[in-house]
Amino acid sequence: MMLIPCPWCGPRDDSEFAYGNQAHIARPNDPLATSDQQWAEYLYFRDNPKGPFAERWMHAAGCRRWFHVVRDTYSHVILQVYKVGEWPDPALGVGPASKES
Amino acid sequence: MASQSNRLAAGGRVDRRRPLVFRFDGRRLQGYAGDTLASALLANDVHLVGRSFKYHRPRGILGLGSEEPNALIQLGRGNRTEPNLRATQIELFDGLDAHSQNRWPCLRFDVGAVNSAFHRLFPAGFYYKTFMWPASLWSTYEEVIRHAAGLGRAPEGPDPDRYERMHAHCDVLIAGGGPAGLAAALAAGRSGARVILADEQAEFGGSLLGDDDVTIGGTPAVDWVAEVVAELESMPEVTLLRRSTVNGYYDHNYLTIAERVTDHLGVGLPTVPRQRLWKVRAARVVLATGAIERPLVFRDNDRPGVMLSTAVRGYAIRYGVLAGRHPLIVTGNDDGYRTAFALADRQARVAAIVDLRADPTGSVVAEARHRGIEVLAGHSVTATHGGRRIEAAEIAPMTADGSGLAGSTRTLECDVIAMAGGFNPTVHLFSQSRGKLRWDSERSAFLPGTSHEAEVSVGGCAGTDSVAQAIKDGIRAGLEQVRALGHTARQPAAPAVEEHGQGETRTLWLLPSTQPVGRKGKHFVDFQNDVTAADLMLATREGYRSIEHVKRYTTTGMGTDQGKTSNVNALAIVGQSLGVDVPAVGTTTFRAPYTPTTIGAYGGRDVGHLFAPTRTTAMDPWHRANGAKFEHVGDWMRAWYYPKAGETFRQAVDREVTVARNGVALLDASTLGKIDIRGTDAAEFLNRVYTNAWAKLGVGRCRYGFMLKEDGMVMDDGVTTRLADDHFHMTTTTGGAGRVMNWLEEYLQTEWPEMDVRLTSVTEQWAVASICGPKCRELLGRLCPDIDLGNDAFPFMAMRDGTVAGIPARVFRISFTGELSFEINVPTRYGLALWEALMTAGADLGITPYGTEAMHVLRAEKGFIIVGQDTDGSVTPLDLGMDWIVSKTKPDFIGKRGLARPDLHKPDRKQLVGLLTEDPIFVLPEGGHVVEAVKPKPPMAMLGHVTSSYFSPSAGRSIAMALVKGGHARKGQTLYVPLEGRTIPVTVADTVFFDPEGSRRDG
């Protein structure tokens, strides 16, 4: 069982958390302007890397806050934890470093 | 009672003043306190303890501890019986009742042993090859195979014992309490760190308990053990766990320990559980799990009496039991000589030492010769003799490379063969933690390579065969771990150790014989699964390359011991067969648990009524006192119906429904999900999460809403009320409350964090009594003096604050039945008082409580859907015929884009319709398939299925709703619901079966 450092509560067993899949997938500002393909990609298409992955977690049995974790999906090493509205360390190479992407 | 003929007069750690009586296969035997079942059986000269899995060959005790593959025991009777326990780990207690396994009709004569005579019929992959055809007969084959094979027998009733879980955190967890683990615990403990030291045996000391030729600090090793344990016990931050197997190593230094609390007593104690599963998060881990001796693979190496060398020695030294008086030692190292000497010191007459090494030079060789023990260097065991017990071995000199024989054979009589084939470090936990193993060709063993977790391996599991080295490494590891955690370490001095090592070792994976492998006799590799060297070679000849495939094809390394003694031998033989090195073969995956663990320990207290929480409402005591029947709805227990004396289910429900339509009826609606929503953006938030418009909803008014997922499918529904400009009271379905709360929180936190909205779950803060029926206004008027209940003053879909029966209340005029109805919300602590007041005040009106079943009938009569029953996550509001609830003007809401997909507007989607059976009395089963045309047998093109179906007292007939392809255009059509033995014709109808004009709503 992983030990996840909640940015608000500190390290807790992963059984206290809910998983929220890939992070930094923003809901389109104007969903009606998206094509069916773009909408499908927003809704269903997710990366599945072997290695560092920015993902969302929620401390369901704790503070109930959503936050972000960069986790190596192979080794389960947690590389970074950060709050909603913050961005992953660019050095980790896990996707957007700013809100534009 | 048989005497303990193999028990030495003195010595060992058993208490000869405390004799214990036990039974093995019904036979009364005696042992001593401190024995294991295995040592007590050997004390009574019982070697034959089981039959092998496939060939039903007689098998004896091989090992000393958890590695034992053969001596599997069924212990105890009735619901406390437990199969597949290792006799080597069962501590003896008075009255112990053990049975051997896998024998029929009895151990000494076994019908299945004929399998051995026909062994050519049982090659590797036998099951796969033999029972492939015809497939239809597999169930017959399986029954026969299950009877003939299989190990122990599971208890048939519920487990009467109690188990529990313990969650713990520590600075350092040390797995294994031998010399290395004890030294690490001492070093870490003296620094003040919080230490847990766990060992699977009844006492600490590990290998030192089975040796008598090691001194530490000038005293016998066991005295050093006692001193260290005493010091550790005096440390408040050190927890010592005996009989506790660290059986799982998971992510981020999370480990499980199975502690057997009372098993050794033979009876449970009222104050403690039988077993306890520790779940430990350790900052640092020291693995000191030792090593397991390797059997040697020679022809017919499985006869009872063929044992591991350290086991033979351990039984003699630790338990005072001579497994045989005339032992033959077969060794590839100096350690085998230690066994010879220990036995010789205890009245055994050593037959000979067969040394695989061509020219052993250690001082032990000289000592053996000095003691008059014959040393046969460069020899192989070529055959063995004996039935239920080893009687003799044939030996012959080998060629220099060990691949063949270089001389004639000679027969040596013996009653035990001690195999010293070197040691396999117990790297199971290291490997479970995802540490990478490396092959050490000098030691011929897998050793811990690169660590993955904050962990270090020391002692035997790190490859050392030296007690001095183990203690030194243990101390160093203990210090390093606590220093890394910021403790000030105080270094204990490493004591001086006198010991004998393994010396130079020779590893031969397969001892040469006079016959080729597979001819006349078997070279067993995996004793528990009856896998021979010939089986492994056959698998490679048949093209198997991956060791994982070879494992599954031959079953090597499977079973309850998971190949503790066999895996490395199997890998090496596969490697030889393929002409590659062991590292190229690789290893199979080590998985938790290290030893079989009772499911009860994992379940802990989460069994029976504690398996899942049960939620009850404030009115629950009244329901129980008044004979309600209950049903589970999510975690809730809800009153289902309230039968009167002699009433059937249908009669009670019909009565409740009829009263609700004609008088006044009362429902406990407390379980509905409720969310309090506040903030200046609350109305805009609702606009985004519901499909309809919310901005203009007036204060004190209610509105029904649909929540969709982003894909446009219905997720939940409910009525939400505006309490103030910036304050709403949302209700959700009973089962969907948690899901909706999570959903709303997620959008607020991750998509719209700029919105000023706060959510609070208030499901449990409000008790809800819903009154319904034409007389309910009169009833409420009697109890509610401060709200004008007139239809104009308090219209449908409005909410008023007031008091009911003197209790502050929110009263909502909403209806899930189509009748005039009020939902009275009061603080939960007043729920029961409100309910009782309503029942009392309505007595003369004939007030009748109704349960969830009548509620379902009432709503279905009106065509009101239940999300999750009439929908299934693939249903849109359009499919439900509820286009009116989807705003065409709002620029966006969750699900709007999803609903815009053209596919969701196709006319042939499954749509919700009513179904009327031709026979008005017949009630369709929910889930029944709807078809267009009936064929004599399946398959038939399916149009959909029945989602809700009841007998409707109000309509005077059965009613049903169904999701049917293109259903909205099928009104009036006749379709069919094929059932077992009959087919029901149905007419597609509207979903509203009663009062389609809605004339009853205002009373």
Structure in words:
Chain A is mostly beta strands and 101 residues long. In chain A, 9% of the residues lie in helices and 33% in strands. Chain A contains one helix and six strands. In chain A, the strands form two sheets. In chain A, strands 3-4-5-6 form a four-stranded antiparallel sheet, with no helix packed on it. In chain A, strands 1-2 form a two-stranded antiparallel sheet. In chain A, a hairpin with a 7-residue loop joins strand 4 and strand 5. Chain A is globular, with a radius of gyration of 14 Å. Mean pLDDT of chain A is 92; it is low at 97-101. Chain B starts with 14 loop residues before the first strand and ends in a 14-residue tail after the last strand. With 1003 residues, chain B is of the alpha+beta class. In chain B, strands 8, 9, 12, 13, 14, 15 and 28 form a seven-stranded mixed sheet that branches. Chain B has a six-stranded mixed sheet with strand order 41-42-43-40-34-44, sandwiched between helices. Chain B contains 24 helices and 50 strands. The model of chain B has no long low-confidence stretch (mean pLDDT 94). The interface between A and B is medium-sized, with 26 and 25 residues.
